[in-house]
TrEMBL record:
It is a multi-pass membrane protein. This is Unc93-like protein 2. Residues 453-476 are annotated as: Disordered. The chain crosses the membrane at residues 29-49, 69-87, 94-111, 117-137, 158-178, 190-209, 244-262, 282-303, 310-330, 359-383, 423-444. Keywords: Membrane, Transmembrane, Transmembrane helix. Belongs to the major facilitator superfamily. Phosphate:H(+) symporter (TC 2.A.1.9) family. PANTHER family: ET TRANSLATION PRODUCT-RELATED (PTHR23294), UNC93-LIKE PROTEIN C922.05C (PTHR23294:SF59). InterPro entries: Ion_channel_UNC-93, MFS_trans_sf, UNC-93-like_regulator. Its main location: membrane. Residues 464-476 have a biased composition (Polar residues). Gene3D superfamilies: MFS general substrate transporter like domains. GO terms for cellular component: membrane. It is found in: Membrane.
Length: 476
């Protein structure tokens, strides 16, 4: 929890900083850029690894089981991550989280030689813990640091930097496996390349400042957290499960990682040969950069009214979602899991028109993913301003998202038909839009004066009983 009065809201009375440059080390722009670079190196490379289908292995079983373990622990620590972030601060939270990515990539290097699943599955479970910590910290930083009218811009900036990791990461398997056009697992050099980037990101996380040290250009602090305790955080996290705003976000949270399994394993992993999967990922994550910038601009600049911007953004993403999943259905009707691998000729990027259609579809899936998730983050950022509250909100979002991901990986392992997986993804995504519209109408205020209720709870020192927590006016 925060301290009393104006500092608690993160807005404070303007105190002109010595240097008003947006490129100050303690400016929101630089700090959001740094968290983007951390995610470029760690989850960005993880995305490139997962995007090849099966973690780069011909047999998807080990990767599916590892991802089930990953998203199961992620679901738990995603929800707990916001509270852990509020206690440990960004540096410790991020450093521990990032280090687990290195272990995960290393487990596939081991699997290339020994074919034992146990290490890969354990590494996946540990990565779920680390990812929960990393994404809770990332969400708090990305949604609370920017000025109110530029949250979409900052989110799109983060998303572009982060997904550049997927672009570079996609080039690693493309280049290192260029001469291998037949079905095969990726070589050792691919995994080593991923591990090097992940190690860089782990140490870069130490450059992230505590939110109380970050100052906006008007002199206001993003937040001034002075104390939080395990009991306070557990209580606040439990309250999220009864928070109607969070409950409205559950379908969007589930949908936002559920479709990865289908897209990575059953589109990219089934239709294309090894080197082309890497190339496809360059464009999949490149499309994410385009999509995030596009939707970020709409949700910041399209209308003066913040509520109107949110509604327009949701409607645009909803229409695009319908068109892209419709295109996916048209392609899916032409092949099935019974055709794999005997009756499908794997596509190569040199196959001309045969390659073009499935490639555009996969590119469009990347575009939709970025727009959908950037839209959800914008909505979360519009619900509150304080870093502590938003760390819990984003942690809840990532936790539920990961629970959906755990289910999706097991759905694929159980050989559920590709068509049924597509229908489930389309349905979950579509259900999300009317609920997000309701959230915008009911909870987002244009004047920023009634968000997160009229009061905020304030942390009490540890020698006080938790029942003495009091409400203080939320001064704007």
């Amino acid at each position: 929890m925060g301290s009393y009065g104006d500092e608690e809201t993160g807005k404070g009375l303007p105190n002109s900083p010595p240097n008003n440059s947006i490129f100050r080390y303690n400016s929101p722009l630089v700090q959001v850029g740094l968290i983007g670079l951390v995610c470029f190196c760690c989850p960005g490379m993880f995305n490139a690894l997962s995007g090849m289908g099966g973690g780069g292995q011909v047999d998807h079983t080990a990767a599916n089981n590892a991802n089930t373990a990953l998203y199961t622990t992620f679901a738990i620590f995603g929800i707990l991550g916001g509270g852990i972030y509020n206690i440990l601060g960004p540096q410790k939270t991020l450093f521990v989280g990032c280090s687990t990515y290195i272990l995960y990539a290393g487990s596939f290097l081991y699997y290339n030689h020994h074919k034992h699943q146990a290490f890969v599955v354990v590494a996946g479970g540990l990565l779920g813990i680390g990812a929960g910590l990393l994404w809770a910290a990332q969400g708090a930083i990305m949604t609370s640091y920017p000025p109110h009218d530029r949250k979409g811009t900052y989110i799109s900036m983060f998303w572009s930097i982060f997904n550049m990791g997927g672009v570079i990461g996609g080039l690693i398997p493309f280049v290192s496996n260029y001469n291998r056009t037949t079905a095969a697992s990726v070589n050792d050099g691919t995994y080593i390349g991923f591990m090097i980037f992940m190690a860089i990101g782990t140490f870069l996380s130490l450059a992230i400042l505590h939110p109380s040290k970050v100052t906006r250009n008007d002199g206001s602090k993003c937040t001034n957290i002075k104390y939080s305790s395990v009991s306070v955080e557990l209580l606040q996290i439990l309250k999220l499960f009864g928070n109607w705003k969070m409950l409205l976000m559950v379908p969007a949270s589930v949908a936002s990682n559920f479709f990865y399994t289908y897209q990575f394993n059953n589109v990219n992993g089934v239709l294309f040969n090894l080197r082309t999967r890497g190339l496809n990922n360059v464009f999949y994550w490149g499309a994410q950069m385009i999509g995030s910038v596009f939707i970020g601009s709409i949700m910041d600049y399209s209308f003066k009214s913040r509520r109107a911007r949110g509604l327009v953004g949701i409607i645009i993403v909803g229409l695009l979602s319908t068109a892209i999943w419709g295109g996916g259905l048209a392609k899916q009707l032409k092949y099935s899991c019974e055709d794999v691998p005997d009756h499908i000729v794997l596509l190569d990027f040199k196959d001309g028109s045969k390659f073009a259609g499935p490639f555009v579809l996969y590119f469009s899936y990347g575009l939709l993913d970025a727009m959908f998730q950037s839209m959800v983050y914008w909505v979360i950022g519009a619900l509150a301003d304080d870093s502590e509250i938003l760390s819990r909100y984003t942690g809840f979002y990532k936790g539920i998202q990961s629970a959906g991901g755990a289910v999706a990986w097991q759905v694929d392992s159980r050989n559920v038909t590709f068509l049924n997986q597509l229908i489930a993804n389309w349905t979950l995504t579509t259900i999300s839009f009317p609920l997000l519209i309701a959230l915008i109408l009911l909870a987002v205020k244009d004047d920023n004066k009634e968000e997160e209720g009229a009061t905020k709870e304030v942390a009490i020192p540890s020698n006080h009983d938790i029942s003495t927590t009091v409400d203080k006016p939320n001064k704007e």
